[in-house]
């Protein structure tokens, strides 16, 4: 009986059928990037808001004030009396009642222009000129509540983490395409509920679930694409990353055109329902079917692939070799039971963690500067495009391991140099930091491909999901690490980033080279990789 790779070679390793499936599933990269980075626009800080004095709403209605007039009576005297106060996080410690004059409401309290004003911290009575422009104004995530905006992104990353374990396991047990379709449905439904969440608690719950299902769509589409092509075409996994970058570049355009956060949330969530149409055009992974002892279904799909590719399978291909490895439900012990699987798993987990931590840290560092948010975000995405093209140019010529290691080391050295460059040449600091981001982006994209190629089919989706869960952990830690260490010394985070990246670059050189090698079917195949 022929092996799967032999049948695939005769059916076409990257023909019309695979190109169609590849293009369709790549759209998932765009929608996943929307979810990944949407908080930047959903949580924009409101331009103009202030803390309302108790009783001001009733008095404003009685006196017929506009919001601007109420603000003048509320904030202007406060600013005159205390130049350091903007009226956003504190207010005058007074209460307005019906006895207050509409013409001069503060005259009742004497001379408030002195510097001995009594102030009170604002807790919940904010007024926004654009109350529905972002979740910050919708749920009062300002002043003492500002940390809750960071919580919303941390909750999303926790959802990614949970999705990596639960849906990664489910995809290995119940099938790639089934979990992909269910995940797309889940992302869409949860996205709609998030858009109309009546309070912040409901918002967090369904943002977490959207993260769970979002990770399911991203990981399963990646695995499906790499499992239906030949070993020489697996670098198309890198091309999927280009669609993620395109999503990063498209997102600011959506946010610019849509004025409310609910509109943005719906615009980035509803496209997931279109992916349900893939049920009729994207088949189950034949590699996975073979591991579940479903050779007839796998062969039927291979005949269909050959037909669409203009090929014809030989009549003696009546059955495909099924993996001799006993099929069982995957667990973490399967990933560390044998020596080379254990080495690969630990190095890949560290590589995922480091890539995510440094990538998000550098993105946030570059985003601290002022300017046009939409343009700056677009440019930050455009910077990532050369990374994918550099990988496509080098990875099939010199292999995976060397570019993987060098990109990490370059990122580490760039971070170290940036930390010690003088502040009076900001253009040079920005240029070197951008080089660091280019390096870590390359490392981030290569780890996807290497992770796929170093696990057997029976454990591939679970192994990729488990290792990439460290990426989500890095995403949770990144903002806290960046801002806490920057409070001690602004450049200290870059020192930490440089150490992590260089160590990662050296460790990945211990991984086996997988250029031109068929995807391993069993743990024994992995152990034989040198």
TrEMBL record:
The chain crosses the membrane at residues 21-42, 154-171, 178-198, 204-225, 237-258, 264-282, 347-368, 374-395, 402-421, 427-450, 462-482, 488-511. Pfam families: Sugar_tr. It comes from the Eukaryota. It is a multi-pass membrane protein. Its main location: membrane. The keyword Glycosyltransferase does not apply. Keywords: Cell membrane, Glycoprotein, Ion transport, Membrane, Mitochondrion, Nucleus, Transmembrane, Transmembrane helix, Transport. It catalyses: (R)-salsolinol(in) = (R)-salsolinol(out); tyramine(in) = tyramine(out); spermidine(in) = spermidine(out); agmatine(out) = agmatine(in). Residues 110-516 form the Major facilitator superfamily (MFS) profile domain. One of its GO terms (biological process) is dopamine transport. It is found in: Apical cell membrane; Basolateral cell membrane; Mitochondrion membrane; Nucleus outer membrane. This is Solute carrier family 22 member 3. It comes from Spheniscus mendiculus (Galapagos penguin). The lineage of its organism: Eukaryota, Metazoa, Chordata, Craniata, Vertebrata. The gene is Slc22a3.
């Amino acid at each position: 009986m022929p092996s799967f790779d032999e049948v695939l070679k005769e059916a076409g390793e990257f023909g019309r059928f695979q190109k169609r499936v590849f293009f369709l599933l790549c759209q998932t990269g765009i929608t996943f990037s929307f979810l990944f980075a949407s908080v930047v626009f959903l949580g924009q800080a409101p331009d103009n808001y202030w803390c309302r004095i108790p009783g001001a709403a009733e008095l404003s209605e009685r006196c017929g004030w506009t919001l601007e007039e109420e603000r003048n009576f509320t904030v202007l005297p406060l600013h005159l009396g205390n130049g350091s106060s903007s009226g956003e996080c504190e207010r005058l410690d007074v209460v307005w009642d019906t006895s207050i004059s509409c013409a001069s409401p503060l005259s009742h309290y004497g001379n408030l222009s002195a510097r001995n004003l009594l102030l009170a911290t604002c807790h919940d009575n904010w007024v926004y000129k654009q109350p529905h422009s972002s979740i910050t104004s919708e749920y009062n995530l300002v002043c003492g509540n500002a940390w809750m905006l960071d919580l919303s992104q941390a909750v999303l990353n926790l959802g990614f983490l949970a999705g990596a374990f639960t849906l990664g396991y489910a995809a290995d047990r119940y099938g790639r395409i089934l979990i992909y379709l269910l995940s797309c449905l889940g992302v869409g439904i949860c996205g709609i509920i998030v858009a109309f969440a009546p309070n912040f608690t409901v918002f967090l719950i369904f943002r977490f679930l959207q993260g769970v299902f979002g990770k399911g769509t991203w990981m399963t589409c990646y695995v499906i694409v790499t499992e239906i092509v030949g070993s020489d075409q697996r670098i198309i996994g890198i091309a999927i990353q280009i669609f993620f970058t395109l999503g990063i570049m498209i997102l600011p355009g959506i946010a610019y055109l849509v004025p409310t956060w609910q509109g943005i949330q719906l615009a980035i969530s509803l496209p997931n329902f279109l992916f349900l149409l893939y049920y009729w055009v994207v088949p189950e992974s034949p590699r996975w079917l073979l591991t579940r002892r479903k050779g007839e279904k796998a062969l039927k799909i291979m005949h269909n692939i050959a037909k669409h590719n203009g090929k014809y399978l030989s009549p003696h291909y009546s059955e495909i070799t099924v993996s001799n490895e006993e099929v069982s439900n995957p667990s973490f012990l399967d990933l560390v039971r044998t020596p080379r699987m254990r080495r690969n798993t630990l190095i890949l987990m560290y590589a995922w963690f480091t890539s995510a931590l440094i990538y998000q840290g550098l993105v946030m560092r570059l985003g601290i500067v002022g300017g046009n948010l939409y343009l700056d975000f677009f440019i930050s995405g455009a910077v990532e495009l050369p990374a994918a093209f550099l990988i496509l140019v080098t990875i099939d010529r010199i292999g995976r391991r060397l570019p993987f290691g060098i990109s990490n080391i370059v990122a580490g050295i760039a971070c170290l140099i940036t930390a010690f460059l003088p502040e009076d040449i900001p253009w040079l600091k920005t240029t070197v930091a951008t080089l660091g981001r280019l390096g870590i982006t390359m490392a981030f994209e290569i780890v996807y491909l290497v992770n796929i190629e170093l696990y057997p089919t029976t454990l591939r989706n679970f192994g990729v999901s488990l290792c990439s869960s460290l990426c989500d952990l890095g995403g949770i830690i990144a903002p806290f690490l960046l801002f806490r260490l920057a409070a001690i010394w602004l450049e200290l985070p870059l020192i930490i980033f440089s150490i992590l990246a260089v160590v990662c670059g050296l460790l990945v050189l211990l991984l086996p080279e997988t250029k031109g090698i068929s995807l391993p079917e069993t743990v024994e195949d992995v152990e034989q990789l040198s």
